[in-house]
Specification:
This protein is α/β, with parallel strands linked by helices and 228 residues long. It has 7 helices and 10 strands. The radius of gyration is 18 Å and the shape is globular. It comes from Ruania alkalisoli.
Length: 228
Amino acid sequence: SPIVELEQLGKVYPTRTGDVTALTDVDLRIDDGEFVAIVGPSGCGKTTLLKILAGLEHHTSGVGTLGGRELGSGAADVGMVFQKATLLPWQDVRSNVLLPVSLQRRPSKADRAAADELLEMVGLTDFASKRPHELSGGMQQRAAICRALVHEPSMLLMDEPFGALDAMTRDLLNVEVNRIWRETHKTVVLITHSIPEAVFLAQRVIVMSPRPGRIVDQVEVPFGPERT
Ligand code: ADP
Ligand code: ADP
């Protein structure tokens, strides 16, 4: 069943120097539990599309639903990972993972257990009480993934999550993300500049093109990753 359905979605940013059309005529359906990668050159609207799914931007034409609810009707049930881990430097790793919970309520014992379980899943158990600066860049992104998952969102959105990391760390994290997807059964939408990364991780690759941003191709990955 579809978790995302977009029909003729468009986005125009009004700016001082005139309107910028970031997205036009986007038709997209994403099934629950699917892993989709979005590729395309800079400026083709990848981030804008992800922000609309996350409820951080409003579309300006067309219609869309996420989990059966109309896009833009309140907080979206998603977790996000950005290129920078953006962990709070003065809080330990566990508190950083719990941040989405802490913003709503005092974390319970169960919340802490959930955070520790996520940290264990990505091999950070021994770093739960450390500060972010004591972790490598790859470890910080692992913590950011845990933070995105701690409130059990139905969808994980990742915008170039490993673009700033060295090749070896990136490859290891790709293996990690594949495992997380197989273990959590989450829907994942990943923006990447790397076709090998897209093909390794995703079941379907969505290709976008700029001026104006739109989907120009959708490729099912033959022998794509399978969930256990
Ligand atoms: P990326 O290609 O990784 O999406 P960009 O450099 O295009 O990064 O954009 C970085 C940030 O600046 C984004 O949050 C985007 O929304 C914002 N941005 C991009 N273009 C403009 C613009 N013309 N005016 C204002 N903000 C912009
Ligand atoms: P990508 O992620 O593929 O690089 P973006 O979604 O960041 O693409 O940007 C798509 C287009 O929208 C670009 O032309 C960009 O300059 C423009 N844009 C993005 N964010 C803003 C913004 N906040 N204000 C104005 N223009 C923007």
